[in-house]
Amino acid sequence: LKEENASLRSKINKLQIFSETQADKMRKLEKKLEENKIKEEKEAQDLEAMVQHVEQNLQLMTKRAVKAENSATKLKQENALLQVQLKNYKTENEALKSGQSASLAAVKQNADLALRNLLKVITNSRSSIKQLVSGAESLQLVADLLKSIDRVSEMSEDGQ
């Protein structure tokens, strides 16, 4: 009976040691789990901040693209008006050449002025069109970035 008692005490001691070891492991795992939760929350907040920043940039670029489109439209209208003026000046120039009224120098001066204005409008139109294309490329880059953020978010959710 004493031997059996000693054997049972030995087993109890071993089980207590094993239980304490398991409890330590459990505490360590709980601590690690808590650390991982905190880390994931921080990563989620960082990702949210980045998404908000990208959205703000996207809105800004959209506004700039709309402004460039409006400017390009206005310049196209101005260009069309100047082309009509140029045509009128050319017609007037032809009329003067055929002997009608007004001096040739005035017509040439008007045509030169119209040509300078036309060239100026064309130059401005090209600049606006370049800005519009650049804005569209920027919007495409932001769209690609948002797609990649969605993929990262999906991969993060799958990894949990």
TrEMBL record:
Q: Name one GO cellular component term.
A: early endosome
Q: Can the keyword Repressor be found in this entry's annotation?
A: no
Which controlled-vocabulary keywords does the entry list?
A: Coiled coil
Quote the protein name from its UniProt record. Answer: Endosome-associated-trafficking regulator 1
The gene behind this protein is Sdccag3_1
Q: Coiled-coil stretches, from where to where?
A: 19-92
A Gene Ontology BP annotation from the UniProt entry: positive regulation of protein localization to cilium
* PANTHER family (alphabetical): ENDOSOME-ASSOCIATED TRAFFICKING REGULATOR 1, ENDOSOME-ASSOCIATED-TRAFFICKING REGULATOR 1
- Native species: Nyctiprogne leucopyga
Q: Which domain of life is it from?
A: Eukaryota
InterPro entries from the xrefs? ENTR1
Q: Keyword Coiled coil on this protein?
A: yes
Family per similarity comment: Belongs to the ENTR1 family.
